[in-house]
Design brief:
The protein starts with a helix and ends in a 34-residue tail after the last helix. The protein is globular, with a radius of gyration of 36 Å. It folds into three domains: 168 residues, no CATH class; 164 residues, Glycogen Phosphorylase B (Rossmann fold); 231 residues, Alpha-Beta Complex (Spore Coat Polysaccharide Biosynthesis Protein SpsA, Chain A). It has 719 residues and is α/β, with parallel strands linked by helices. Helix 3 packs across helix 11, helix 8 packs across helix 10 and helix 10 packs across helix 11.
Length: 719
């Protein structure tokens, strides 16, 4: 019994112990299996390429910690470089694909230390501070991706900015060892100091297959148009010296030369110019009486007098940038930073970012053989143009030269624009400073949907010698409720305008503006006196328009402030027999132009007409005394892509008192020239911007059988 009791008492106690032991065993086994499945899944679905997980960051991995890669002597060397490469032959745009942001993705290879078989590095300097800044800027930008499978463009972490520090063969072999090299397809290299003694080639000597090159010293012989990108030579002074922006205008010196290493023949010629022009030209050289070092680099001397560099550049209107051993010079960046207009004399040099930047607006390029004539050439540039160039030069530096970040982002944006041309930046976006230079002037494209009525419009009357009809026009216009100001552009330099007491008495300000030359373009000059958004351009013989017609025209313009709104309409037609455009003023069902003898438009177009008119159109108009209205129609249509708006039935302007002697448009040759104008302008614009429409604007109750006194515009004239 006792034995049974002992057994029985022990039995129930042993069973739970066995279950606990088994439970621990099974839990342990299950955990091992689960961990195995997780590990298998991770290895199955984790990216196989270490490239995609190796994010580029110098902060996380120093150069000394980067893995060492030995280059076997027998490693392949890329080809020298294909000069025939273009985007459609050596670049795989399909890698870029479509993305909603229209932005390429750029992958930076992980940092590695390349050495030859005996352990000697392929570069004497390793990763330079400038290249580190460049790669860091790209990795922080929207262009960057750490997913190699999404990359459109590949950038090696191999620094080839300065060829002086490179071992040519070994760097080429290192490039060929990159896992995605594929003969350089879709790879981008940055180089600022190409070539070496004695020839100083204008492109990087490292063999690079089909890789794109962003180079700092291209010539027309080595630059692959539309493939390579010409970049500036970065100046260390950009980061080390703060040059506050200086207002454009005359400076202490007219011309300044600050380069210390230039060819002997150039210095002799500059010294001769100095003798001829005295204090107007400052010719600086390195300081022989200072000890070598950082301090001496920032100094320039002339006959024992020491000047701070680059600060002295701000004291000159023009600064000479001559070629040295290399075409690209860091001096160009210093000059732009100082707001000094660079005078570039480096034959065959491809200017930085010239694919998108209009260097005519910020510099003067003179052939090297014209150096003796430099002073005369620069003196012929108007002061106002010099000031605009000074302003543009400084802005070019701020936007595109001031840092490795700016240089890198500009390079990638240019390549991006090639790949996504439909989303590319416009000429204006590349070349116009973002700030509005014309105070109180806004583009009509960005006005409210309907500008307010209260400011009214400014009437600009162009006149020469028709005093009687001029006074009648002023009298009629003064009756328009929305008239804010009257400006009379007096275009007769041989005769003074009437005395103030003889002018009609009007309720709005009236001012006479005398011009220096008799030019038709004077009517579109952006006078400071124009304070309203709306402008009515009107001739001194347009006496037939009623105040209701003019007020209605203004109301229509308020609804369409980006259009030309006028009265008589005209049409351009293609003459199949003659194979050219023809001007048509007869009865037609279509309109593509309105005459600016009486037309409303936004004053913004005065600035575009005066300062941004393409080619020689403005000069052509002034020389022929014709077609300024056609030119304005071309300009507005080209900017807006829209047709003008014809208002009211007016078809022709007739001046009862005018004779053929009085009116330009009555001359027999006038109409022939009008057709010539259209063909001339279409050639300059390289397109036909004029748009054809088949409608006009009339008051809502214009033809309705309704009491006249209840209509807003009862007095609408006939044809």
């Amino acid at each position: 019994m006792c034995a049974a009791v002992k057994y029985g008492s022990r039995g129930p106690a042993l069973i739970p112990r066995m279950k606990t032991k088994h439970r621990i065993y099974y839990i342990t086994l299950f955990s091992v299996v689960l961990l195995g499945l997780i590990a298998t899944g991770m290895f199955q679905f984790w990216p196989h390429s270490i490239e995609s997980s190796a994010e580029w960051s110098l902060d996380r991995r120093s150069v000394h910690d980067a893995p060492l890669v030995r280059i076997p002597m027998s490693s392949p060397i890329p080809e020298r470089g294909d000069l025939s490469c273009r985007m459609h032959t050596c670049f795989d745009v399909y890698r870029c694909g479509y993305n909603p942001k229209n932005k390429i993705k750029v992958y930076i290879y992980p940092l590695q230390r390349f050495v030859d078989e005996v352990g000697v590095p392929i570069s004497s300097t390793g990763l330079s501070r400038e290249y580190n800044d460049l790669l860091s800027a790209i990795s922080d930008s929207d262009f960057y991706t750490d997913d190699v499978s999404r990359a459109c463009l590949f950038i090696p972490s191999i620094d080839v900015l300065n060829q002086n520090s490179l071992r040519i063969r070994e760097n080429a072999q290192a490039l060929a060892m990159l896992p995605r090299w594929d003969k350089g397809m879709n790879h981008l290299l940055f180089n600022m100091l190409p070539g070496g003694p004695p020839d100083y080639n204008t492109a990087l000597d490292v063999p690079r297959d089909r890789a794109l090159l962003a180079g700092g010293g291209f010539s027309t012989w080595t630059y692959r148009q539309g493939y390579d990108v010409s970049i500036p030579v970065y100046s260390p002074f950009s980061a080390e010296v703060d040059l506050p922006e200086r207002q454009p205008g005359p400076r202490r010196y007219f011309i300044l030369s600050s380069q210390t290493v230039i060819h002997r023949e150039y210095r002799v010629e500059l010294e001769r110019l100095k003798e001829e022009n005295g204090e107007a030209l400052l010719l600086l050289d390195k300081c022989s009486n200072l000890s070598q070092g950082l301090a001496s680099v920032r100094k320039r001397c002339y006959k024992g007098q020491v000047y701070d560099y680059p600060q002295i550049l701000q004291e000159s209107s023009f600064c000479v940038v001559l070629r040295g051993a290399r075409l690209g010079q860091a001096t160009l960046s210093d000059v732009l930073q100082a707001g000094c207009v660079p005078v570039i004399m480096a034959d065959s040099y491809i200017l930085p970012f010239s694919e998108v930047l209009d260097w005519k607006r910020a510099s003067v390029v003179i052939p090297e053989e014209k150096l003796p004539e430099m002073y005369t050439i620069l003196k012929s540039i108007p002061h106002r143009q010099v000031e605009e160039m000074q302003r543009q030069a400084r802005w070019f530096w701020e936007a595109y030269f001031s840092s490795m970040n700016a240089i890198g982002m500009t390079t990638l944006q240019i390549i991006n624009d090639r790949i996504y041309p439909y989303a590319a930046r416009t000429y204006e976006e590349w070349n116009n400073p973002p700030v509005v230079k014309w105070t109180s002037v806004n583009s009509p494209l960005f006005l409210p949907l309907i500008p307010p009525r209260s400011p009214g419009f400014t009437a600009v009357v162009l006149t020469y010698d028709r005093i009687e009809s001029l006074f009648r026009v002023i009298t009629e216009i003064s009756k328009v409720p929305s008239l804010a100001k009257l400006l009379v552009v007096w275009n007769n330099q041989n005769k003074s305008p009437p005395e103030e007491s003889l002018w009609p008495k009007v309720a709005v300000p009236l001012k006479v503006l005398r011009t220096k030359e008799n030019k038709l373009s004077n009517r579109f000059f952006p006078f400071d006196e124009i304070e309203t958004e709306a402008v009515l351009a009107i001739d001194d013989d347009i006496i037939m328009l009623t105040s209701d017609e003019l007020q209605f025209g203004y109301e229509v313009w308020r609804e369409f402030p980006d259009r030309l709104v006028g009265y008589p309409g005209r049409l351009h037609l293609w003459d199949h027999e003659m194979g050219k455009w023809k001007y048509e003023s007869e009865w037609t069902n279509e309109v593509s132009m309105v005459l600016t003898g009486a037309a409303f438009y936004h004053k913004y177009f005065n600035y575009l007409y005066t300062y941004k008119m393409p080619g020689d159109i403005k000069n052509w108009v002034d020389a022929h005394m014709n077609c300024e209205d056609i030119a304005m129609n071309f300009l507005v249509a080209n900017i807006t892509g829209k047709a003008p708006i014809k208002v009211t039935p007016r078809k022709k302007f007739k001046c009862p008192e005018c004779t053929a002697i009085d009116g330009l448009s009555l001359d027999q040759t006038h109409m022939v020239e009008r057709s010539e104008c259209i063909n001339k302008f279409a050639s300059v614009f390289a397109t036909m911007p004029l748009k054809v429409v088949e409608h006009r604007a009339d008051p809502v109750l214009y033809k309705d059988d309704f009491p006249e006194k209840l209509k807003s515009f009862p007095n609408i004239g006939s044809l």
